[in-house]
Amino acid sequence: MSKGAPTLEDVARVAGVSRATVSRVVNGTRNVDPELQETVRSAIEQTGYTPNRVARSLVTRRTGTVALVISGAGGGSDVFTDPFFGRVTAGVVDFLRAQRVHPVLMLADSDHARTEVVEFLRQGSADGALLVTTHSADPLPARLVEAGVPAVLYARPGRPMPVSYVDMDHRAGGRMAADHLVAAGRTNIATISGPLDVPASQDRLAGFRDAMARHGFPYVPTAEGGFTAESGGAAMERLLAEYPDVDAVFAANDLMAQAAVYLLQAHGLRIPDDVAVIGFDDSSPALACRPQLTTVRQPVEDMAAAMAYLLLESLEKPGQRPKSVIFEPELVVRASA
Amino acid sequence: MSKGAPTLEDVARVAGVSRATVSRVVNGTRNVDPELQETVRSAIEQTGYTPNRVARSLVTRRTGTVALVISGAGGGSDVFTDPFFGRVTAGVVDFLRAQRVHPVLMLADSDHARTEVVEFLRQGSADGALLVTTHSADPLPARLVEAGVPAVLYARPGRPMPVSYVDMDHRAGGRMAADHLVAAGRTNIATISGPLDVPASQDRLAGFRDAMARHGFPYVPTAEGGFTAESGGAAMERLLAEYPDVDAVFAANDLMAQAAVYLLQAHGLRIPDDVAVIGFDDSSPALACRPQLTTVRQPVEDMAAAMAYLLLESLEKPGQRPKSVIFEPELVVRASA
DNA sequence: GAGCGCTCTTACAACGTTGTAAAAACGAAG
DNA sequence: CTTCGTTTTTACAACGTTGTAAGAGCGCTC
């Protein structure tokens, strides 16, 4: 008892049958006499048997585990305090739980770390990878595909490659922000974009600009941010210096929008009276901000769940061609615009 | 190539030696002729061999994986948006990475889920558990100890039991807040406590009250919150209704402190001029809040890393008696008090 | 009562690794 | 030229499970 855990062998001995029969009872396969089934079941009870997952994995070639990889995001482990990743994690965990699959958390913020991730998957420690990557130049997606590892990406890959992904219509999101600000009668509208090497940032900006142009505003003052609060404040500062009469700002995520709000307030400007601010994501900062942020909602949890679904599906029936699922954004109107 | 991954057998065949020799080269054991070592190494290169981790685990009885369990926290998966858990995750991941150990994320928010966690560990899917639990009545710690699973807790267990844990001197933290407010000349001081069934909440409150009493304030108006923004706002509302002349508030975490600040501002009160507010944790809301929060810093990342360290140590040499590591808080003075 | 088709059960060989005991190689010493 | 240590290598048995092919039991029919 104290040393080795009870094994199939032990249960078989107690029940007076062979290992294979016990195995079939445990796995619910047909063709076991009900009476004998009961005997086995009570023997399991009696010995306190639990199937050894590692041994099972060795023969089934499945671990019941997937890697949740957060890649590219610069500064290492502070990504976990970004509400966006928290929502991704929540969505993934929530979905996987029901399928009895467990996520192992991996950070791929260096070339060394990326190699480790690929090794980990190739070693069969996990059945596949869920990859959340921000940088479009991230080499990890390509390396995983190359290594033949089942993978699903959050966001379209930088270069086209045969891999499944979920994404959102970021252009539509940008368009919604523009439409709302123009409809509210704003005329001096600027924007704080995300990092321009991130496809999602490009799309949000492009969608915003296109819609603005359609409304008769051919040029939109733009400052590039880095999706962090600091960068958002700095970008707002630059915009304000160059365009003091700005009366509306669209920021490419809530963290930057919140920082912009605070910076504008520090300059004595009232939100939304003097300047309207729209964020993007609808994550916790949108609610924590005063005034609360009007924002373009990205259904992160649903997207994360869809990502997990696509991965499990591809594990179930391998050899299918990659799929993509695109979500629609939604404008959430609160107090800031 | 396409089907089965290369195995030790394959490498051995190519190198013209036995499996055991290859194994010894891979694991860096002594007693392999340097020349042969080179041959084997190039055979590994040539075949693209990667050791199968599952097979290895089966014989070594170690998986190189630990469970990171978030337990008790009521509402399910929205815990991941709580900056506190983000910091715990960051600290754990950061430390484990260097040891080549990977964390599996698990939520234990129901009795069913708790059983699954225990099963998971008993099945040998992970070598041990890192348990972050808030509720003192959480049955999971006891069940893990009972099952003989190596585990380390974040925070002292509700009932005494033989298990290692890391914690902070919450009383000292409460004391620091009281000292600071009194030194600033505040006289109508109230507090928003955390849930009173959480030991950490009790300690913060007790430390605060003791210090207040020592400063000549025998009674401190108290409202109980639930560590969420909503509960913090509601608690502040109650305090304000009953003690309209309050001029300082100590909240048991930053999320509630931030909500208190916003609620006071909504009532036309200025922070810190009319009311001083102190938070607890020094997590991201402390910086996001306007004015930025004065707060009692809890070194969460360090504590999480220490937790991981204790677990790995106990896996290394089993049978040691449990250990505890207690951290000291630190007052971070910003604008709110 | 031999032969046939069922259903249910059992041996046995994987899966890919590690650890151990035995064998081989090789010098050095007697 | 044996004999005895070392070192290096090998064969083989684990580890705990699953899947498959063979076997046992049993009621039929002819």
UniProtKB/TrEMBL annotation, chains A, B:
<dbReference type="Pfam" id="PF13377">
    <property type="entry name" value="Peripla_BP_3"/>
</dbReference>
<dbReference type="InterPro" id="IPR000843">
    <property type="entry name" value="HTH_LacI"/>
</dbReference>
<dbReference type="Pfam" id="PF00356">
    <property type="entry name" value="LacI"/>
</dbReference>
<dbReference type="GO" id="GO:0003677">
    <property type="term" value="F:DNA binding"/>
</dbReference>
<dbReference type="InterPro" id="IPR046335">
    <property type="entry name" value="LacI/GalR-like_sensor"/>
</dbReference>
<keyword id="KW-0238">DNA-binding</keyword>
<dbReference type="InterPro" id="IPR001387">
    <property type="entry name" value="Cro/C1-type_HTH"/>
</dbReference>
<dbReference type="InterPro" id="IPR010982">
    <property type="entry name" value="Lambda_DNA-bd_dom_sf"/>
</dbReference>
<protein>
    <submittedName>
        <fullName>LacI family DNA-binding transcriptional regulator</fullName>
    </submittedName>
</protein>
<feature type="domain" description="HTH lacI-type">
    <location>
        <begin position="6"/>
        <end position="60"/>
    </location>
</feature>
<feature type="domain" description="HTH cro/C1-type">
    <location>
        <begin position="7"/>
        <end position="36"/>
    </location>
</feature>
<keyword id="KW-0805">Transcription regulation</keyword>
<dbReference type="InterPro" id="IPR028082">
    <property type="entry name" value="Peripla_BP_I"/>
</dbReference>
<keyword id="KW-0804">Transcription</keyword>
